[in-house]
Design a protein that fits this description.
The protein is α/β, with parallel strands linked by helices. The protein has one domain: Isochorismatase-like (Rossmann fold), CATH 3.40.50.850. The chain contains 6 helices and 6 strands; from the N terminus they run E-H-H-E-E-H-E-H-E-H-E-H. A 6-stranded parallel beta sheet has the order 3-2-1-4-5-6, sandwiched between helices. Strand 4, helix 4 and strand 5 form a beta-alpha-beta unit. The longest helix has 16 residues.
Length: 174
C-alpha cells in the first residue's frame, strides 16, 4: 500500500515566499490519494526556541490554511527526519504501507532527510521534486545559480534507490 507524507506545510515556512504553484501540486496529489483511499499523513515540525518561526506555541507552527483541512492525521517532529522520535513507523506498519510519496517543505532538509530515512527502513520512496519547496536559495548556500530542488532531486535520483518524479510524471505514472 502507498501513503503520502505532507511535510511541514506550516505558516512559518509558507509565509516566507510565493509557494502557490507548489501548494497547488501538493493539493492535487493529496486529492488523488484521498480519492483512492490511500493514507495521507501530515508532519509538523515544532521547535522549542521562541525565536523560531516554528515555535511550538506560535501561529507559525500551525498547518497552512491552504491544506490543513486535508490533515486527518498529523505527526509532530523536532528534527529533519519524520521518523526520528515519532510514531510514524508504527503507524505505517499498522496501515501496511510499503511505498511512501514525499511532498512538502523544506526540500533540502526535512523532505530529503525523511526520504533517506524511509529508504533505510525498507520503504520504496517516491520524491515528487516540484511538489516540494524551500525558503532557501543560492545566496543561502553561497552557491551562485544553485537550484536547490533540482540539486536534491538529482542527488536522490542518482542514488538509484529513491524514485524522483516531477508532478506531471507522477500524474502519468500513478
Amino acid at each position: 500500500m502507498k501513503a503520502l507524507l505532507v511535510i511541514d506545510v506550516q505558516n512559518g515556512i509558507v509565509e516566507f515566499g510565493d509557494f502557490e504553484v507548489e501548494l497547488e501540486k501538493m493539493e492535487g496529489i493529496i486529492k488523488d490519494f484521498k480519492e483512492n483511499d490511500d493514507p495521507v499523513i501530515f508532519v509538523r515540525h515544532l521547535d522549542d526556541e521562541k525565536e523560531s518561526p516554528l515555535f511550538k506555541d506560535s501561529a507559525g507552527s500551525e498547518l497552512h490554511s491552504s491544506l490543513k483541512d486535508y490533515a486527518e492525521q498529523v505527526i509532530e517532529k523536532q528534527t529533519p527526519s519524520s521518523f526520528f522520535n515519532t510514531n510514524l513507523a508504527s503507524i505505517l506498519e499498522e496501515l501496511g504501507v510499503d511505498h511512501l510519496f514525499i511532498v512538502g517543505f523544506n526540500t533540502e532538509f526535512c523532505c530529503q532527510f525523511t526520504s533517506i530515512a524511509a529508504f533505510d527502513r525498507g520503504y520504496k520512496v517516491t520524491f515528487i521534486e516540484d511538489a516540494t519547496g524551500t525558503v532557501n536559495d543560492d545566496e543561502t548556500y553561497e552557491m551562485e545559480g544553485l537550484d536547490i530542488r533540482d540539486f536534491v532531486g538529482t542527488v536522490l535520483h542518482w542514488s538509484e534507490v529513491i524514485e524522483v518524479l516531477d508532478y506531471e510524471e507522477y500524474v502519468e505514472e500513478y
